[in-house]
Amino acid sequence: MKRRDILKSIPIMTLAAGIPGSIYKYDAFGKIKYAKKSIDYFEELGVDKVINASATMTWLSGSLMLPEVLEAINSTAHDFADMYQLQDKAGIKIAEMLNCEAAMVTSGAACALVLGTAAAITGFDSEKRKLIPNLPGKRPEVIMQTNHRYVFDQAITTTGAKIIEVDNEEEMHKAFNKNTVMALFFNAAESWYGIKNNISHEKFVAICKDHNVPSFIDAAADVPPVENLFKYQKMGFDMVTFSGGKMIRGPQSAGLLFGKASLIEAAKLNYSPHEAPIGRPMKVNKEEIFGMYAALKSYLEKDHDKEWQQWMDRTAKISAILDQMEGVETKVVIPQGPANVFPTLDVIWDTDKFKISGSQLYDKLKAGTPSIVTSKTIKNNMEFINVGVVLLQPVQVSLVANQIKKALKSSI
Length: 412
Ligand SMILES: *Cc1c(COP(=O)(O)O)cnc(C)c1O
Hints:
With 412 residues, this protein is of the alpha/beta class. It has helices spanning 3-9, 12-17, 41-45, 67-76, 83-97, 108-122, 126-131, 154-157, 169-175, 189-193, 201-210, 228-235, 261-269, 286-301, 304-322, 358-367, 396-409, and strands at 25-26, 32-33, 50-52, 102-106, 141-145, 162-166, 180-186, 215-218, 239-243, 255-259, 328-333, 344-349, 371-373, 375-379, 382-388.
């Protein structure tokens, strides 16, 4: 008997209960049923569960998705969608939520940098879309402040563009020519390098407008405060990116690109599901788009003051445990921003009493059970640790404090 005949001969109710050999099980209504039995995949692969007492770092899997994000992912996994329509419709809603012309979901802020630059290079030219990053002629140019150069600007040069460095407004004015396609502002340069912007946000935007060239701001890690999600488009930046997998707590692999409609539309043309422009190898899946949308919605709706207070309570709880120790001191530190503006705790100890350096304590906590990742910090030429509280699960707060206490004690 041929396979087709076998299928024909199986009564319809049996089919509904599951096609033999199929990975799916169906309920009486023909909907896919998933196994209830839960498997500990960490255990199955021998991967350590890490307590993140630091910040939203990609190597530590970014952030933890909120239950509503997981719900959006799970509940949308059973049906197909036209990805063009999904990207368009999600973009319309996100743009409404962020008071801007247009938006899209990208695979992280790094992808948004690639797509935004590609959009600035190609516009709606399909020939250019096919050729980038190897366009004939002079390389497209992107202007940046010299002291804004950073690791992620490789996402700009990935498109074939080259970066032109300027140090002040006058140099910036002069840097524009017919090859200039965009200017990039790295919002957290001040946080990362402890420098001042040579050219202010407002001036940067104004100069770009004078030359009729789009401006792009990378604000990937720059919420909280939530207001930052609205600030830069209002200032006049043509494109803005934020990571989805940082404090917005969407999928780690997602991000937002938003701003001027013509640029976002051009960015979409350089992206999946089109085959196969520069952005195709950076696709986001259907569930990530729904998940990113759900995360943003939830982030905008949340009570940020209350959450801030919960974070402060966590630092107080850890301090209460560590400050009992003679020779140990804790101090709440809130970075000035614009990146990673949330409470953390410096833990400082008398190194005459506790014979352990900051790096050694960091390593010991990381190698411990459970593994805890903190941050190393340097104060007055001495190494200490800094404890991040915003990514801890509530039950982990005193655990982290007690593990630090234990590790310090064992160094006496
Ligand atoms: C995290 C980060 C990125 C990359 O973001 P992803 O969402 O991980 O792609 C880019 N720029 C800055 C400033 C960042 O902090």
